[in-house]
Fold this sequence. Notes:
The structure holds 2 protein chains of 2 kinds. Chain A is an alpha+beta fold. Chain A has helices spanning 9-25, 52-72, 111-137, 150-158; strands at 5-7, 30-35, 40-45, 80-84, 89-95, 99-105. Chain A contains 4 helices and 6 strands, in the order βαββαβββαα. Chain A has a 5-stranded antiparallel beta sheet, with helices on both faces. Chain B is an alpha/beta fold. Chain B is built from 5 helices and 8 strands; from the N terminus they run ββαβββαβαβαβα. Chain B has helices spanning 25-34, 86-92, 110-126, 151-158, 176-192; strands at residues 3-5, 10-18, 45-48, 54-67, 70-78, 98-104, 136-141, 165-167. Chain B starts with a strand and ends with a helix. The chains are: A alpha+beta, B alpha/beta. At the A-B interface, strand 1, helix 1, helix 2 and helix 4 of A face strand 1, strand 2, strand 4, helix 2 and helix 5 of B. Strand 1 (5-7) of chain A pairs parallel with strand 1 of chain B.
Amino acid sequence: xxxxxxxxxxxxxxxxxxxxxxxxxxxxxxxxxxxxxxxxxxxxxxxxxxxxxxxxxxxxxxxxxxxxxxxxxxxxxxxxxxxxxxxxxxxxxxxxxxxxxxxxxxxxxxxxxxxxxxxxxxxxxxxxxxxxxxxxxxxxxxxxxxxxxxxxxxxxxxx
Amino acid sequence: xxxxxxxxxxxxxxxxxxxxxxxxxxxxxxxxxxxxxxxxxxxxxxxxxxxxxxxxxxxxxxxxxxxxxxxxxxxxxxxxxxxxxxxxxxxxxxxxxxxxxxxxxxxxxxxxxxxxxxxxxxxxxxxxxxxxxxxxxxxxxxxxxxxxxxxxxxxxxxxxxxxxxxxxxxxxxxxxxxxxxxxxxxxxxxxxxxx
Lengths: 159, 195
């Protein structure tokens, strides 16, 4: 099976820092980062009242569907997409082939500004994820879950 | 593909309910949703047609509790069962950690069941997974209907490998949580082994 995505404290801090800065630099309402399978990695900005779990899952579904469409017309993928609403707009871009950076913004920002800031943040994030995959692929990197026992798993279901 | 976050101390896994059209995949999720406490579940999302047929997927996030300080979260997805939605089914299998095959026990749906298992095998293989190795359980649903095949017959056709299997009546919840617990356990065991 494919190895799962593992994020350690150090990388998580870096990722959150980049997303935080992007929120400010792009005058965005919310920035969040989702892995292509729909798992939320980080959310910054005014994310409190948002159902980020659903957002993450639908983002992944959307990116997967657009990726499928891209292949049908002979493209590898659509690296970014933009959806404009009456008040809120949404910009999604694929970072490092593995995660999706989503920016939600309103009239206080603009598509041009978001695109510009996303480009830089995307490059920084790609580097962090590159480090992460090297860390995971390093010899001796065992499953971080290896120390749990069958009893631990059983206990989860006995309650 | 599981996602482990050391910072928030969370383990996230993805389980997909697969099976032919109208076998009860969405009903399984609806029952789980209805019978789970609000703290343990998120919002259930159904991308369905006007006639309530699944168009893309249903999604239900569930928390199962903690293992050694890590919150375990399961994301349950269904695929659209109708044959012509195959492109969508492939997308939903991306990054899957465990699969539940929901079979329709009615004799007249046996061919559809067989076709769907084969479709699952092919679509998993396209994503680099092997149905014989991935955490996998089978549910024989609709056991309350009059015209059902025997469990022996269903097993012979749909579960020759003898993976965990459950009889179910999804609308009333018979077998629903047993199926879910079984696949969740297999997923965690696989994770422990370093899958």
